[in-house]
Amino acid sequence: MKKRIFTNGIILTQDSRQPQVEALGIAGDRIVCTGNLHHVRAHMGSGTQETYLEGKTLLPAFNDAHIHIWKVGDLLTYMLDLRDVVSIEEMLDKISDFARKNPEKPWITARGFNEANFSDQRMPDRTDLDRVVKDRPCHITRTCAHVVVLNTRALGICGITRQTPVPAGGEIRLNSDGDPSGVLSETALGLVRKFMPAYSPAMYREMVLAAQEKFLKLGISSATDPAVMPDLLEVYKAMDRAGELKIRINAIPVLVPDGDTVPLPLPEHYRSDFLTVNTVKLFSDGGLSGKTASLKHCYKGGKDQGVLRLDFTFFRNIALKAQTAGFKIATHAIGDRAIDLVLQVYESIAGENSRNIEHRIEHLGLPELSHLTRMKDMGVHCVTQPVFLYELGKNFRNSLPDFYLDNVYPFRSVLEAGVNLAFSSDAPVVKDFSPLTGIRNAVDRTDNTGACIAPYQRISVAEALKAYTANAAMSNNDGDIKGTLSSGKLADFVILDRNPMETAPEQLSDIRVTDTWTGGVKYQLQNNI
Predict the structure, then answer these.
(1) CATH T-level assignment (fold) for domain 3-55
(2) For residues 287 and 293, is the Cβ–Cβ distance under 8 A?
(3) Is the dihedral of CA 333, 227, 264, 193 positive or negative?
(4) SS3 for 115-168, per residue?
(5) Tell me: the pLDDT tens digits for 420-466?
(6) Which of 158, 170, 221, 308 could bridge to 186 as Cys pair (CB 3.0-4.6 Å)?
(7) In Å, what is the CA distance from 259 to each residue of 192, 268, 283, 299?
(8) What does CATH list as the number for 64-68+199-517?
């Protein structure tokens, strides 16, 4: 078993008992000891190789607690990326060029537009897409993934007309003539899913491999994929058995796919060094940037309050069954009305939680203080995304009344309430999913125009680092094996070219990851990723 000591740099353990040490000793895939160099050398014994950090900073590898792994890979391999477009015309030019270069594709698919970045802030519709793609169905997904736009050909293939019943918790938007505009949201996306070509296991594998290489370059050694369908789950298992997973994946299967009224069967529990299945996923509302998150009050300038996707009884029955089978429940809830529903359900099944399972709320965009108190009492984790403030902040400022905007994504309040705050990116909802960018966003809370959003909800660099390491591991029930550099835990760590604790907030995202180690193994990163 190979033994190694790291020293001659800054070692930040994220362990409150010993926050900074002089040396770290590992053997095989585990951390053996930390402390001053003399102590570590004595403990590790002879035959130990020493690695000199040369002033760099070593800390636990980052854990993105909510990122759609295969979808990140899809945009690196098969799907057109629209996240940089700043007008409908630019978007259409890219789609036209993509269609021309891919004549073999039966559907033209793209993702990432955000109408808030367009000068007229207009949502595109089928007439726009028809201008550039008429011969094939075209399906473009808004950056939030809760809204899609179809061309006329796709609407026809899916049989969506003015007579099509709107699924509960969904929306088929109509034009001035009463016909479908091509814009669908939330559960109505299920009307399209069964008509689109399915990805093959080989394609999924290619996406995952591309994504994990990118993750390792950013210092991410662990990631939670929070919406896994059964076919993807089998691919993850096959890749795990083949030894192809180089990041530790917590796969969370979806229980109620878009448009379905009957839940999927519960998955089997699964646990290996690189793949875990112990949590299931539900959606209670939509996205805040697309104004489908469910609010108690109206969005700015209208009467819209978003979409509540579940009713209490249906939700509770599914949640209780999952909890009884030993699964954590991770529920997407952004708006205050949706958060209230989730907590009502969690509280209603708490008396039957004999295993003391700690559930999660994904995003938690607009919690009330009473919500945070209830979460603390039940041990519910908050898994949220500081990068939303930067990339989607303009949407929030455009659509939220001031009393909501002043409390959106309230990281300081979450910490003060004693709720575990775990960070993530939700990529590819956002383009930049570097944890160091997320840390900067949590500290400065400015959007990409320079506007500051709810500045009193800022947190410190130390708190943000913990949210991306120790707290993220806790949200997956993995705090006993990773998240801090402590004896007996996995040797998963990252080396940075400078100390984030001594870096100005605006320069945090400029810090460079020089090495990522997983299980005591340093990965050679491809320069072209």
Answers:
(1) Urease, subunit C; domain 1 (2.30.40)
(2) yes
(3) positive
(4) HHHCCCCCCCCHHHHHCCCCCCCEEEEECCCCEEEECHHHHHHHCCCCCCCCCC
(5) 999 999 999 999 999 999 999 999 999 999 999 999 999 999 999 99
(6) 170
(7) 9, 23, 12, 25
(8) 3.20.20.140
